[in-house]
Amino acid sequence: MKALAVLLLVGLLAPAAFAGLDPATDSFGVYFDTDGNTNCTTAAPFELVTAYLTLMNPAGPTNGFECSVSVAGVPHVVLSTVIEAGPGCHVDKDVSSGDFAVACGSNFAAPPSGAMILVAWTLLLQEPGELLFHVGPHPIPSLPGGLPVVVGDGVLRLCNVASGDPGLPVAGINAANCPVSDEASSFGRVKSLFR
């Protein structure tokens, strides 16, 4: 009977534990869906892929951000880069470099899913292979700490990155190992409930 109760409890917890959302507050990541559930995908050469720079679980109002996004791996082409924050935003630098300093006159819309889309890219790989995304601080950061920054109501906030370290990838296309594996850590947390 005890084993049945444990199985039922794990079955009830499993959908929440494997939802895929980054539970951290003010966390930058790159995802391949607008809800922040998919940070790894596959793509053939010359297949269009849309990727999103996302602020997960904003801690408060947000009307600006600064970070850098670098992509490493097989040759690829970025066909478009769109700042999703909305009209009336000032973009401080050429976004094709991967460095973003964006300030807007009003707060970004609060995301119902917890995933605030900041930038959308359309890209394609030019040959088969792996492409990894890293998120880090802007080259001229507003706050020390080596991490991305957001601003809301005039207050700067130092943010996290989904991988936990700017030196580690946050997302990948055709990645040999998915850079951020929420499932493994979530299952570990569920398993620890029964120790």
Task: Give a structural overview.
This protein has 195 residues and is mainly beta. The protein is built from 2 helices and 13 strands. The strands form 2 sheets. Strands 2, 4, 6, 7, 9, 10, 11 and 13 form an 8-stranded mixed β-sheet that branches. Strands 5-8-3-1-12 form a 5-stranded mixed β-sheet, with no helix packed on it. α1 (2-17) runs antiparallel to α2 (182-192). The longest helix has 16 residues, at 2-17. It is globular and about 45 Å long. 31% of the residues are buried.
Q: Which features characterize this protein?
A:
195 residues; mainly beta; eight-stranded mixed β-sheet; five-stranded mixed β-sheet; 2 helices; 13 strands; globular; disordered N terminus
Secondary structure elements and their pairing?
Elements: H1 2-17, E1 27-31, E2 40-41, E3 49-56, E4 64-73, E5 76-83, E6 89-91, E7 99-104, E8 115-125, E9 131-136, E10 149-152, E11 155-158, E12 160-161, E13 171-173, H2 182-192
Parallel strand pairs: 1-12, 2-13
Antiparallel strand pairs: 1-3, 3-8, 4-7, 4-9, 4-10, 5-8, 6-7, 9-13, 10-11
